[in-house]
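Hey, quick one: can you model this chain's 3D structure?
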Amino acid sequence: MGGGLSRARQAALFFVGPFAAALLAAAVGGCSGPKPVASVNGQELTEKEFADLCETTTMQLQPGASVGSQVLAGWVSTALFAQLAKKTNVYPSEQDLQKRIAATEKDLQFRGTTLDKSLAERGVTLEAFKRQLLESMVQENLLYQGITVSDEDVKRAFDTRQDQFKLPESIKISQITVDSEKALKLAQADLAGGTQFPLVARSRSKDPFQPGSGQVPMELTHNTPAGGPVAPEVVEAAFKLKPGQVSEPIKVGATWVIARLEEKNAEKRPTFEDVKELIRSGVRGQKAQSNPAAQQQVQKTISESFKSADVKVFRPELQMVETQFKQRQLAVSGAPAGSPMVQVPGGQ
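Sure thing. Here's the predicted structure for all 348 residues.
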């Protein structure tokens, strides 16, 4: 929610995202070796902890750089933020974390799934999810410290943006795609003769869904874009059917498509209770951006913590992480007083 990034948010991203990206020049370095791997202000990262991070990371890894260097850079950033949050008494409590997890579960339930299923589909462990969620909450509390948001504030945001939270009317379909009138007549004859739709799709269809008996795995809405695996005209024709009904042939470019409606789901809107905790963070961010003086103070606090950080890397093959961090410290220390900390490469 909200518009562009504030300077404090950009300052944070300097450590969390672009800082890690700047370290990707390290082309070697694995995830095993002597203890400890590194330390930040005396807080050590053990071999086991590092191996666990490497195994469960979900960060977008850059090609040509080692997993180890990227994971270590991320850990340095995370450790610095956590230390600063504890020092300034804004580190999230276990109760805060469980509250956010419960809010996530409620949102997923509204969307027709569960946390376990969602994590399994993404290949993310529950422990990794909790760790990432906690890291996100630490950053929020640092960036938005002193900013409180009431239920009334959140309710106003919910009331004015309800359409952003709704699930639109959707359908699930199966389809048969053929590339000639002759093939179309054969498919129609099969269906008219009682051959089951999935079997006709497997034997006649020529599209990406043929191996799955024509079933389209994703839900489709009225806003299905052109150029995708399912043509908008096919979707609109399917919306006019009842579950189990089969459409007339639909001409799509040089092909013909026969669709069958499998399932139709009405538009669904969440209640305020369903989503209030998930939009609270966005409201905090908006309120923070409206207070430039507070944002400057946050930026100064983060900058000072970064400049004074003692980062040591004990693995020779990962030494580039320490080298790059110290280069960044020098860049920040040399910035003119009162200027933005460091311009974020590629920042928005």
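One thing worth noting: The mean pLDDT is 84.
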